[in-house]
Design goal:
Structural class: mainly alpha
Number of helices: 24
Transmembrane segments: 21-42, 151-170, 177-196, 202-225, 237-258, 264-282, 347-368, 374-395, 402-421, 427-450, 462-482, 488-511
Catalytic activity: histamine(out) = histamine(in); dopamine(out) = dopamine(in); tyramine(in) = tyramine(out); spermidine(in) = spermidine(out)
Strand content: under 5%
Number of strands: 4
CATH class of the largest domain: Mainly Alpha
Organism: Chloropsis hardwickii
Family: Belongs to the major facilitator (TC 2.A.1) superfamily. Organic cation transporter (TC 2.A.1.19) family.
Order of helices and strands: HHHEHHHEEEHHHHHHHHHHHHHHHHHH
Domain Major facilitator superfamily (MFS) profile: 99-516
Number of domains: 3
């Protein structure tokens, strides 16, 4: 009986069929990256706003004030008394009722200087010039509630974390394509509910669920693409990252054209329903079918692949070698039970955590130029494009390990140099920091490929999902680490990033090289790498 890789070679390792499936599934990267970074535009600053005095709404309606006139009566008296008070988080501790004059609402307080009038913190009743532009104005995430905006992104990352465990496990047990399609349906439905959430609690619940299903779509499509191509073509796992970057580049254009946060949310969520059409064009992974003792279905799919690729499988291919490894429900113990699997798992978990922490930390620190939000965000995405092309050029010439290690080492050196460059050479600090961003992006993209190549088919989806969950943990920690340490010394986060990246660069050299090697089918295959 021929092995799966022998049959795949005869059917075509990257023919017309695989190219079509690859292109279709790659679109998932665009929607996933848009979800990943959407908080930048969903939570953008709402423009000018101020705290409304109790009773001011009724008085404004009775007096026929415009919003600007109401603001002048509300905020200007505050600023006359104290120039540092903006009227955003504090208001005059007064109440306006029917007895208040329309022309001079503060006249009832006699000769008291407005500077001597008592102030009260604002807890609600904010007025926004752009009331529906973002979730900040929709749910009053300002002043004492500003931390809730950070919470919304942390909740999304928690959803990614849950998706890595729950849907990664489900994809190994119930099939790749089934979980992919269910996840696409979940992202679309939850995205619509998020857009029309009546309150912030409902918003957070379904943003968590959207993150969970979003991670399911991204990780599962990545594994499917990796499993249907030959060992010499697995750099498609790197190319698929370009579509993630395209999503980052496209997102500011969507946000620029759509003025409301609900519109942006729907624009990045609704395309997931189109992916349900893949049910008729993307088959189940034949590698997975073999691990579930479904050799006949796997062979049928392989014959279909060969037909679309203009090839023909030999008639004696009536069966494909099926893994003799006992298939059970995957668990973390399966990933650390044997020496090589244990070493790979621990190093990959650290690599995911470090890459995410440094990547997000550098993005937040740089601010990319400053000024125009849409242009800055576009540039931040464009910076990542060279990373994928550099990997494509080197990955099949020098292997995986060296680019993986060098990406971390160069990022470490760049962070260290940036920390000690003088402030009066801003262009040089920005350039070196951008080099660090490019280098850690290379490491980030290589870890996707290496992770999928170092696990057997029976554990691949679960292993990739579990290890990449550390990426989500790094994403949760990054803003807190950055801002807490920067309060002590502005460049201290860069020192920490440098140490983490240097350690990672050395550790990944302990991983086996997977260039040109067939994907392992069993744990025994991994131990013999």
């Amino acid at each position: 009986m021929p092995s799966f890789d022998e049959v795949l070679k005869e059917a075509g390792e990257f023919g017309r069929f695989q190219k079509r499936v690859f292109f279709l599934l790659s679109q998932t990267g665009i929607t996933f990256s848009s979800l990943f970074a959407s908080v930048v535009f969903l939570g953008r600053a709402p423009g000018n706003f101020w705290c409304r005095i109790p009773g001011a709404a009724d008085l404004s309606e009775r007096c026929g004030w415009t919003l600007e006139e109401e603001r002048n009566f509300t905020v200007l008296p505050l600023q006359l008394g104290n120039e540092s008070v903006t009227g955003e988080c504090e208001r005059l501790d007064v109440t306006w009722d029917a007895s208040v004059s329309c022309t001079s609402p503060l006249a009832r307080y006699g000769n008291h200087s407005t500077g001597n009038l008592p102030l009260a913190p604002c807890h609600h009743h904010w007025v926004y010039e752009q009331p529906r532009s973002s979730i900040v104005s929709e749910y009053d995430l300002v002043c004492g509630n500003a931390w809730m905006l950070d919470l919304s992104q942390a909740i999304l990352n928690l959803g990614f974390l849950a998706g890595a465990f729950i849907l990664g496990y489900a994809a190994d047990r119930y099939g790749r394509i089934l979980i992919y399609l269910l996840s696409c349906l979940g992202v679309g439905i939850c995205g619509i509910i998020v857009a029309f959430s009546p309150n912030f609690t409902v918003f957070l619940i379904f943003r968590f669920l959207q993150g969970m299903f979003g991670k399911g779509t991204w990780m599962t499509c990545y594994v499917i693409v990796t499993e249907i191509v030959g060992s010499d073509q697995r750099m498609v796992g790197i190319v698929i990252q370009i579509f993630f970057t395209l999503g980052i580049i496209i997102l500011p254009g969507i946000a620029y054209l759509i003025p409301t946060w609900q519109g942006i949310q729907l624009a990045i969520s609704l395309p997931n329903f189109l992916f349900l059409l893949y049910y008729w064009v993307v088959p189940e992974s034949p590698r997975w079918l073999l691990t579930r003792k479904k050799g006949e279905k796997a062979l049928k799919i392989m014959r279909n692949i060969a037909k679309h690729n203009g090839k023909f499988l030999s008639p004696h291919y009536s069966e494909i070698t099926i893994s003799n490894e006992k298939v059970s429900n995957p668990s973390f113990l399966d990933l650390v039970r044997t020496p090589q699997m244990r070493r790979n798992t621990l190093i990959l978990m650290y690599a995911w955590f470090t890459s995410a922490l440094i990547y997000q930390g550098l993005v937040m620190r740089l601010g990319i130029i400053g000024g125009n939000l849409y242009l800055d965000f576009f540039i931040s995405g464009a910076v990542e494009l060279p990373a994928a092309f550099l990997i494509i050029v080197t990955i099949d010439r020098i292997g995986r390990r060296l680019p993986f290690a060098m990406g971390n080492i160069v990022a470490s050196i760049a962070c260290l140099i940036t920390a000690f460059l003088p402030e009066d050479i801003p262009w040089l600090k920005t350039t070196v920091a951008t080099l660090g961003r490019l280098s850690i992006t290379i490491a980030f993209e290589v870890v996707y490929l290496v992770n999928s190549e170092l696990y057997p088919t029976t554990l691949r989806n679960f292993g990739v999902s579990l290890c990449s969950s550390l990426c989500d943990l790094g994403g949760i920690i990054a803003p807190f680490l950055l801002f807490r340490l920067a309060a002590i010394w502005l460049e201290l986060p860069l020192i920490i990033f440098s140490i983490l990246a240097a350690v990672c660069g050395l550790l990944v050299l302990l991983l086996p090289e997977t260039k040109g090697i067939s994907l392992p089918e069993t744990v025994e295959d991994v131990e013999q790498l």
